[in-house]
């Protein structure tokens, strides 16, 4: 007797079905895009200087972060785009501040990576320099922290942090200062003899999710004299909110017409 159609169907072990279902659920529960808000305060008097809205998604499989910087009245004045084509610690970055017609970052041009700075319409570019130690660019610092999370227990971690305006990597030492209130406290300082006169950066990361919760030190946004503003940026403890990809596209086209004084 010929076997029935039902009998000829390949049998799948129950455990395999469970695995398939779990993978489907995980895929369905992972949002295509997320958003979180942050507030930047002046470290000297505590007043609100500006707000940051961070979006994360993927473009053709490439992780992307878009940041919109807004005045207290809600109008945007600057934007940053971060694309991680290869190493998570060294993404391409484009930051632009419409208040001063200033932009800087790292881009891939004709297969080669370069650093660029544009001020008052004058564009300068140089090849991305080599670094003597593990190099990090902009938001790639977060990836470096997570990759070395356990190593901080053994001692400070040494990295090279890119300063686009100087077209150079600066050696930094990242140390674990302590833990408390569910957060790990890190300090980043210039790892050179003159580091004592350069302001350090204080950071707090959540112990449960290893997300940045607080940044204190010279930030990306500059003041009226063109110097990095000394700020305390606070991120929410709640997880990022799932949003539609269209919201990120809207953020990329949002007019940069804010004229607040930071």
Description:
The chain has 262 residues and is mainly β. It has a 16-stranded mixed β-sheet that branches. Strand 6 and strand 7 form a beta hairpin. It is globular. 24% of the residues are buried. The N terminus is likely disordered.
Shape: globular
> Order of SSEs, N→C?
HHEEEEEEEEEHEEEEEEEH
Q: Please tally the β strands and state the result.
A: 16
Rounded average pLDDT: 88
Assembly state of the chains shown = single chain
Helical residues, percent? 10-25%
Strand content: over 45%
Spans of 5+ residues with little confidence (pLDDT < 50)? 1-14, 16-29
Number of H/I helices: 4
Q: Profile the largest sheet.
A: 16 strands, mixed
The span between the termini is 85 Å
- Structural class, please? mainly beta
**Rg calc:** 22 Å
Characteristic key phrases:
mainly beta, 4 helices, 47% strand
SSE layout and pairing:
Elements: H1 5-8, H2 14-29, E1 34-42, E2 48-59, E3 62-70, E4 76-83, E5 92-97, E6 102-109, E7 112-119, E8 122-127, E9 135-136, H3 140-147, E10 157-163, E11 168-180, E12 183-190, E13 201-206, E14 212-222, E15 228-234, E16 241-242, H4 245-253
Parallel strand pairs: 9-10
Antiparallel strand pairs: 1-2, 1-15, 1-16, 2-3, 3-4, 4-5, 5-6, 6-7, 7-8, 10-11, 11-12, 12-13, 13-14, 14-15
